[in-house]
Structures are given as structure tokens and as C-alpha cells.
Design goal:
Blueprint lengths: L7 E3 L9 H9 L2 H11 L3 E10 L2 E9 L5 E10 L2 H14 L3 E8 L2 H13 L5 E12 L5 E8 L3 H12 L4 H19 L14 E5 L5 E8 L4 E8 L3 H9 L1 H8 L4 E3 L8 E8 L12 H25 L1
Pfam family, one: DUF4268
GO molecular function, one term: nucleic acid binding
Protein name: DUF4268 domain-containing protein
Length: 316
């Protein structure tokens, strides 16, 4: 028996968002929608301000990357791209010293796509440009559903060569951390991990989106204690921590784990909920022997996302 399927239909953006600033920017700035964009781009976007003043101009959305606090600007254009908006992107980026520049549009001209590609190829690893096509789709008479389609994004492989001289100045520990996350990223990609894999760095943590701009997941490594950790990192929301702590028994039952609940003092913004495990292999660069550690990392990340996403939805 052949089942009847619905027809996929593209919806004109202007039927939903009549005005870029008054309609679309306000929609995108909502936490769930920024989280969806974060998930697609593989970065954690935390809203700072809409229509933020930059000299005599206003950037549509000013945000920051939650785990690194890199400044993010988002410029929206519900039409075909033009030189005016490309110029605005660069002006705003320089005005706020942004490290992540996102251009969202209805359609992109080929010369503008090449321009974004060129910027990604000719800037160092600290600057990322994204060109994102905004689409709306519906099945038969369903509600329109938004879709972010990445047209151009940073080519980290091309930028690696430019950062080799910087890496040569890193300590052995920092180089190990970078190698660890890069090797785990390759493992996770090969094993189809159910999270977006973000850019790695020479630091003791590696962050992942959990579908919310107020917190994220992170793997951590401590080479002295030979310990790996997996945690939910809440940057600045004690009420969220308290809500989750009130569900402590249910959460630990769902995860089948005893967790470490770290509210931290009130004068410290962040809070953490984590699990950790010792692996004697930690510190060794023989990553071919990291199978058990990588399995532990992937399993806990996926379970944390599945479990905490449910409670985050209830909180929000």
C-alpha cells in the first residue's frame, strides 16, 4: 500500500515578517530561535541587544559566543543581498570588534557569496563569517517552518596553516588540549554524534549547544588528575540551576548517574552540573588508544542533551 504524502511548499518570507527590524529581528532574538540558529551554525549565541548602537548606525543583533564571549553581530536582509548590507557588516564588525559575523538573507548574489568566501580565506582563525539563507516551508496547509541554510561558512582547514606559528608558541598542555578535541571531533563525526561539532581551541573545555542560549554542554579535561568531565554549564542564571536542582532525583535517574551540583557562590555568575571519570590514557598523545574515553565522552554528551533538553523546555 502506497501512503499519501504531503506536498512541500516554499512560503514567501514577507507573508510572515513584513518588516526586517520590527518583525524578523524581534522573532530571531527570541531564545528558541537563536538556539535554532546556534544549532545550525555550531556556535552558542547569547543575545546582548537588538538594534545596538554602533556609532551612528544600529546593528540588528549584537550577541556573544557563550563559552568564549567573542562578540557576534547578525545583520538581517529579507531580500536579495546588496553592497549596502555587506558594507554595514564590515562597519558594524569593526565598531564592536566582532569575531563572528552572520549575514541572513532571502537570496545571495554570487559576487557576495564569493566576497564572504574570500573574507573567510583571507582572515585568521579568530574571525568567522557566515552567510545564511532564510527559508520558510510548509507541508500542505501546515504552519510555516523556518529553515536556516548555510551558504558560506569558515573554512577552518584553510585557516589552520595561518595559525601554525601561533600554535608553535602554545604550551605542551595547550597543544595537547587542542589535539584531544580535534581527535574527538573526528571520532564523533565518524560515529555520527547527535550534536553539532563546533570549532576546537587550545583550552581545557570543548563546548556544545544544548538548544538554549542560557547554558551549554561542555567536555572538560584535567591532565593533572587524568580526568575527563561532561557538564551542563549555566553562565548566569541561578534560578535555572535551582529549578534543575529541584528535579535532581529525576534527572539523576534519567541519566543513571550521581552528578556533582555546583551552584557556586552568588557573586560568581556561573553554575555547573557535571560528571567526571578518570582515564589513565589522559595526557598521552597516542589517540589511537582513546576508544574507551571517546565512547564515554560521546555517550555522556548525547545523554546530557537528551535529558537536560527536556527540563530546559519545562523551565522556559
Amino acid at each position: 500500500m502506497i501512503k499519501t504524502l504531503g506536498k512541500l511548499k516554499k512560503v514567501d518570507l514577507r507573508t510572515i515578517w513584513e518588516h526586517e527590524a520590527l518583525s524578523f529581528t524581534k522573532w530571531l532574538a527570541k531564545e528558541d530561535n537563536l538556539a535554532a540558529l546556534s544549532e545550525e551554525l555550531g556556535i552558542s549565541i547569547k543575545l546582548l541587544k537588538t538594534e545596538a548602537d554602533v556609532g551612528g548606525f544600529n546593528v540588528d543583533i549584537l550577541a556573544e559566543e557563550e563559552d568564549s564571549e567573542r562578540k557576534i553581530i547578525i545583520e538581517n536582509q529579507l531580500e536579495v543581498t546588496d553592497h549596502d548590507h555587506l558594507g554595514k557588516l564590515l562597519t558594524y564588525a569593526s565598531g564592536v570588534d566582532a569575531s563572528v559575523i552572520i549575514w541572513i538573507f532571502k537570496e545571495i548574489r554570487e559576487e557576495h557569496r564569493r566576497a564572504i568566501d574570500w573574507l573567510n580565506e583571507h582572515t585568521d582563525d579568530s574571525i568567522d563569517f557566515f552567510a545564511v539563507k532564510m527559508e520558510l516551508w510548509q507541508i500542505s496547509e501546515s504552519l510555516p517552518a523556518p529553515k536556516f541554510q548555510i551558504i558560506s561558512n569558515p573554512n577552518n582547514w584553510a585557516k589552520v596553516v595561518k595559525t601554525k606559528t601561533e600554535e608553535s608558541r602554545l604550551t605542551d598542555t595547550k597543544l595537547y588540549q587542542l589535539d584531544l578535541w580535534n581527535n574527538f571531533k573526528t571520532y564523533a563525526s565518524d560515529h555520527q554524534i547527535k550534536l553539532n561539532l563546533t570549532k576546537t581551541g587550545p583550552q581545557h573545555w570543548y563546548s556544545f549547544s544544548v538548544g538554549s542560549s542560557i547554558c551549554h554542554l561542555a567536555l572538560t579535561v584535567n591532565t593533572r588528575s587524568k580526568e575527563l568531565g561532561c557538564e551542563l554549564y549555566i553562565s548566569d542564571d541561578k534560578e535555572l540551576f535551582d529549578f534543575l536542582f529541584s528535579k535532581k532525583n529525576e534527572i539523576e535517574k534519567d541519566l543513571n548517574l550521581k552528578l556533582e551540583w555546583m551552584r557556586l557562590p552568588d557573586d560568581t555568575k556561573a553554575s555547573r552540573i557535571k560528571t567526571a571519570k578518570k582515564f589513565e590514557i589522559i595526557g598521552s598523545k597516542n589517540f589511537a588508544k582513546y576508544q574507551e574515553a571517546f565512547e564515554w565522552m560521546q555517550s555522556n554528551l548525547e545523554n546530557f542533551k537528551k535529558t537536560f533538553s527536556k527540563y530546559l523546555s519545562a523551565y522556559q
